[in-house]
Amino acid sequence: MMQTKVICFANNKGGSGKSTSCSNIGAALAAKGKKVLMLDGDMQCNLSLSFLDEDVVLDYARGKQNLYYAVREQKDIRGYIIHTPYENVDLIPSSTLMSSIEFELFSKWQREFILKKMLRAVKESGIYDYILLDAPPTLGGWVMNLLCASDHLIIPVEASPWGLFGLANMFEFLQTTREIAPELSLLGIVITKVDERKNYFRQTLESLESLEDIHVFESHIHVDSSVEWAQDNSRPVVNYRRTSRSAREFMLLAEEILQITEGAEGGAFHAAH
Q: How far is CA 227 from CA 6, 27, 217, 222, in A?
């Protein structure tokens, strides 16, 4: 049996396509027969909204079956898992109260490892092939918690003039985290919101490929109105419009991730920054 892999999607810059990448890669892995658990770690609840209708998400956000209360109470996280309408995809929804999670963690013993400890039982159970974590666009104690709970990190980067802004800070934060979680690896960077009619994509790609020991995924995610339509219908694009360009790209990206994590165990791509 393959060991459960935990992958965090993080970027301190907003608008990078982080939640979109997390949700669609999760859906793509599920479509390939993998059992996936999604954790929505962002108070904006975008990951939850990718699988559930808005009124359902709001009900979970206002209630106590969400990630905020799981972390606050440090209870068995398996009691907070809900099933989505999609085969092989389960979810722990978020809450708008996640905005105060830093305060909740501040006085906790070994606070950087709270989520890691909470995930241990479900990870060791082998129920899921992959656990995907969606982090908020910040750098702080909660994101460090998410990273410490992960085996791998994927950084989505938008192909825009400001897409690379703050990436050095993200690398620095990753390196700091790896001082206490040395097993964490940078699986790679995925370029999102690509529009090849503009020069930004080529500039972004060249800048990223010039970084030493940083893997850039071959599959890039282009601008596609199907993504917005899918989000408007609370569905991953790989389920909403499977023949769309972005759906095909996410499926290819998921295949790349499978090849790395199930082949070389992802160990070759450690951040050098």
A: 25, 13, 20, 10
